[in-house]
Write a structure and sequence with these properties.
Layout (H helix, E strand, L loop, with lengths): L12 H20 L9 H9 L18 H14 L1 H18 L4 H12 L4 E4 L14 E4 L5 E7 L10 E7 L5 E7 L5 E3 L16 E8 L17 H28 L16 H33 L4 H28 L1 H4 L11 H10 L5 H14 L21
Parallel strand pairs: 1-4
Antiparallel strand pairs: 2-3, 3-7, 4-5, 6-7
């Protein structure tokens, strides 16, 4: 791993929000430059992880501030407002560390919590190309004589992996059910390729990782309580909504700035400045309303999810939380695409010049919103409304859910 200065230890959730805003202000000018888009985001991630923001989920009893989901989601939204790609790296980092700091195995918690607090980076290596669906994994975790495990397989869509310190790997356990393992990015047998080439979210580093006989210590195959909560995917879902909501607000702010400083009134309008055109005012009003609704739904969903985490036995509250996150996902998806695409209807032909890089908002939104099909969030909402069917956000029966291995 690359030696870095330890991250700042933030005092509380208010400090976390303030730090996220400082990070956003520093990385926004980088995201605006077309020539830098697609480069490895070394500078941006150095700024982010030194800030202490990626460590706010660490519980208080492990030295952190134990931030609420609302605060975690807000930091992802703020960072995504500046750069959707860096917001996605932060989102995946937060999802990956949740299983480590909440593991019932004390050795796992005690090993990883200080590393997270010091600013080490956790990325995912979950998805694979091919297979019936995303749960049909071919990466295997096999027992190693003398203790521990051996990991073999190949991954793609491994967001954050190239500049990470640790990779959280989805795999198949020795008894044939889904499992997870955490390995060092530079461990012997790990190969990370910089082969992510997409028209949006270009600096997420979501490419290929190969594992060849990688040793996994017992406490790096993290355990969780094998509960049957229906809200397994609610945490990543709400952070996905935070990314798209941030992109939407970023697009809106960029459009307003361009209208104020660069655009000219249309000749038929009869006004001196484009900001006085009635049609433009109306359209900006529609964009603003869509973004505002996405932000309100995100905060509401985060509050409900925090309540559901505090009372996991309340099935009605779990249902409400899952549905609220589904609503936030739909609103954020629609707002980011609506504003990112529609802003060009207002700004004029000059706005398409590469030097402004205004298309990044639509490209990032269009790319990120493909990660989780909104049609299934709408299905959950509609099925509950029509048929009173409680949503299950993880499409596997409880006995088939991810197994977290006992130490060898």
């Amino acid at each position: 791993m690359t030696e870095r200065k330890p991250a700042i230890r933030l005092a509380d959730e208010a400090a976390a929000i303030a730090a996220a805003r400082e990070v956003a202000d520093l990385i926004r000018p980088i995201a605006q430059h077309k020539a830098r888009e697609g480069d490895l985001p070394r500078e941006q991630l150095d700024i982010l992880f030194a800030s202490g923001v990626p460590a706010i989920a660490v519980p208080r009893d492990l030295g952190g501030i134990g931030a609420s989901i609302r605060t975690i989601a807000e930091t992802v939204r703020i960072i995504s407002h500046a750069d959707g790609s860096i917001g996605q790296v932060l989102q995946l980092h937060n999802v990956m560390i949740a299983g480590l700091v909440n593991s019932p195995l004390a050795e796992t918690r005690d090993y990883f919590a200080p590393r997270i607090l010091d600013g080490q980076r956790f990325a995912n290596a979950l998805a694979e190309v091919g297979g019936k669906n995303k749960l049909a994994l071919r990466t295997t975790l096999s027992p190693k004589p003398g203790g521990g495990f051996v990991l073999n397989g190949r991954k793609f869509y491994s967001t954050g992996s190239y500049l990470a310190d640790w990779l959280s790997v989805g795999c198949v356990s020795p008894d044939g059910v889904p499992a997870f393992a955490v390995v060092e990015r530079d461990a012997p047998g790990v190969t990370v390729l910089d082969d992510w080439r997409a028209f949006g979210q270009r600096t997420t580093m979501s490419g290929t990782v190969i594992f060849e006989n990688v040793y996994v210590p017992p406490h790096h195959a993290p355990q969780r309580n094998r509960g049957t909560s229906r809200a397994v995917l609610t945490r990543p879902q709400i952070l996905h909504a935070a990314i798209d909501t941030g992109i939407a607000r970023g697009a809106l702010d960029a459009a307003i700035d361009y209208l104020r400083h660069y655009s000219r009134a249309w000749i038929e309008s009869g006004v001196d400045h484009i900001t006085q055109e009635a049609h433009v005012i109306k359209q900006i009003g529609e964009f603003t309303s869509a973004v505002y609704a996405a932000e309100i739904l995100l905060r509401n969903a985060a509050d409900l999810y925090d309540r559901a985490l505090a009372d996991p036995a309340d099935e009605a509250l779990t249902t409400e939380a899952i549905l609220s996150v589904a609503h936030a996902r739909v609103a954020s998806d629609q707002a980011s695409l609506k504003v990112g695409n529609g802003l060009f209807d207002l700004l004029g032909a000059s706005a398409v010049q590469e030097k402004f890089n205004l298309d990044r908002f639509w490209r990032n939104a269009r790319t990120h919103t493909t990660h989780d099909p909104i049609r299934w969030r709408l299905h959950a909402i509609g099925d509950h409304a029509l048929n009173d069917v409680a949503p299950i956000d993880f499409p596997v029966a409880p006995e088939g859910r991810a197994r977290f291995l006992q130490p060898a």
